[in-house]
Design brief:
Layout: E1 2-3, H1 23-47, H2 69-75, H3 88-99, H4 103-108, H5 119-134, H6 146-153, H7 158-172, H8 196-215, E2 223-224
Antiparallel strand pairs: 1-2
Length: 234
């Protein structure tokens, strides 16, 4: 992935310019988010998971969604070298905590079972987690096969481990969606298996988020992303 004129953008005054993500970092985060939502709904649509989730499309709507500026401005910094150090970590953590107020995180996160979480809520949590692991995000330890995904699940608290045995076989039973075909934020294909209504909603939310970012000074037209340069799934 190449980006021309990748100077740090300074579209907002509530966060020092040095600690604002630049256009490339925002683009990488947005593309990763778009692919993740598509990945989630590919499997969710096939298996009827999360149909009553109040925040659909996944990660893109509701308070704390990943297309909110308050979430973007911190989480996009994860794509910066040295993001594990302070003060970037504090900014990333603040945005992550905001995102974790989303319904599927409230129901599924935590070291103890949530008494208000239904079995369906936990299916959404497990699918979300498995998809995130499979996407081999550049700031995380990569996995190379489904057994490694299972081992990652086994590091979670005991009440969550059983969900690996329930969700991973479902994922393995389907061919992986061609997320590598999604290379930009303005014109991306409908991946086979995604329902029309979800695809249309993803397109509309992405268009709205890009418009918001452009108003803040971010431009993505000069960022080039080829299919071969972004292998995000095993």
């Amino acid at each position: 992935m190449d980006e021309k004129e990748a100077e740090p953008s300074e579209p907002d005054t509530d966060q020092p310019g040095l600690y604002l993500p630049n256009s490339l970092e925002v683009f990488e985060f947005m593309l990763s988010t778009l692919r993740h939502s598509t990945n989630f709904h590919y499997y969710a649509t096939h298996y009827g998971i999360g149909l009553k989730d109040p925040e659909r499309p996944h990660d893109l709507v509701g308070s704390g969604n990943k297309y909110e500026w308050e979430v973007i401005r911190g989480l996009a910094l994860m794509f910066r070298e040295g993001s594990s150090e302070s003060p970037l970590q504090e900014l990333i953590y603040a945005s992550r905590e905001r995102h974790r107020k989303q319904y599927h995180h409230v129901k599924g996160n935590g070291d103890r079972p949530n008494p208000n979480a239904t079995e369906e809520d936990m299916k959404v949590w497990a699918l979300d987690t498995a998809c995130a692991i499979l996407e081999n995000r550049p700031y995380d330890i990569p996995v190379h096969d489904y057994e490694e995904v299972s081992r990652r699940f086994n590091t979670f608290p005991e009440h969550k481990r059983k969900w690996a045995g329930r969700i991973i076989p479902k994922i393995r039973a389907l061919p992986q969606p061609k997320l590598e075909l999604i290379t930009n934020l303005n014109d991306f294909p409908k991946i086979d298996g995604i329902s029309d209504d979800i695809y249309d909603a993803i397109v509309e939310r992405t268009r709205s988020a890009v418009k918001m970012l452009r108003e803040r000074g971010y431009e993505f037209d000069k960022i080039i992303c080829s299919e071969m340069e972004i292998p995000l799934v095993i």
